[in-house]
Amino acid sequence: MVDIAHILRESRIRAASQHFPPFVGPEQESTPLNATPYIAHLSEAGTEGFLSNREGFIEQLRVGLARLAALSARPVAALLGGSALDAKPDPSDLDCVVFYEADEAHPPSGSALLELQRALKRRRLDIRFVPIDGDPLLLIKIVSYFTILYSKSRESLSIKRGLVLLDCREPGIGNDHDKSDLSL
After folding, report:
1. Total structural domains in the chain?
2. pLDDT exceeds cutoff 70 at 172
3. 179 falls within a domain
4. Mind listing the pLDDT tens digit for each residue in 29-40?
5. Domain that holds residue 8
């Protein structure tokens, strides 16, 4: 049995020490478990933990997720990228896509999401909100787009960095990736 939680944790730690390259070892030996995006739970990020050098951004992300939840949208995951994952000492912002599940009875309005996006932009979060309960083909396209966008530098087509995928679900809610037996 493969200890997925161990592989995810070790590759994430190794990637963080190298400023999140796309692969932490030889590309030929990489798998979806040990390469970008590097996975952590939101509770592991920030103060004295994973991404502690970006605590200000992580705290603003937590504020944004709480405000999103107040709009009847449950945050599921956040894909982080851009120069905030580089060695840059003081990046201007954090690029982020938040994937959420909407309350079917009271989904958030587009204007409320746009207002939240603008408010978070003033707090140095370049954030997008994407529902995960729509057309799966469109969701895959969106993830692919932001993966490429966040992996490169502006005006370049070369992949420069990997990404971080934060699990934003409450512990124990559908996030049992550490109990899986995958042979990837």
Report:
1. 1
2. no
3. no
4. 999 999 999 999
5. 4-166
